[in-house]
Design goal:
mainly alpha
């Protein structure tokens, strides 16, 4: 008799936990934030996770999404900066002659982007495509730095 009641009580416990997640406004926002994080909308995920965390400071899901969204946004910003700087360097490289000022500018930009990359710290949850794309830009800036260094 006791053996037959165990699955029933387990089912009730799981049902209660799922109901709590969907009925609690903090966890509802956390689940929505997780969806936005998984779809790559890191800014929206961060905003929703902050709302969820303000409703319940013990909401670990919201705290995790906040931390991961911040990391992902740093990667997104690095990639955006890399594209911008590479466009500037491409514009400089269209000239037939590089002046010392041009070389210094390329060297400075490359050093800044290399140092910025080293400050990034991915986690196991960070989108692998973001990490890979940032890594590719990092390698491009390393090659550029090697070319312009005397």
């Amino acid at each position: 008799m006791q053996f037959k009641l165990l699955p029933f009580f387990s089912f009730l416990t799981i049902l209660f936990m799922v109901g709590y997640l969907y009925l609690n406004p903090s966890y509802e926002k956390s689940l929505e934030a997780k969806y936005y994080y998984e779809t790559g909308e890191y800014q929206e995920a961060l905003a929703l996770a902050n709302e969820a965390f303000s409703l319940d400071v013990y909401n670990r899901m919201a705290a995790t999404i906040i931390a991961q969204s911040k990391v992902s946004l740093k990667y997104v910003q690095y990639i955006k900066d890399a594209k911008n700087y590479l466009a500037q360097i491409d514009e400089i490289s269209k000239h037939e002659y590089f002046s010392d000022a041009d070389r210094s500018k390329i060297r400075l930009i490359s050093q800044i982007m290399i140092d910025s990359y080293k400050k990034l710290s991915p986690s196991s949850v960070t989108d692998a495509s973001l990490v890979e794309e940032a890594s590719q830009y990092y390698l491009q800036f390393e090659k550029l730095l090697e070319k312009v260094n005397p």
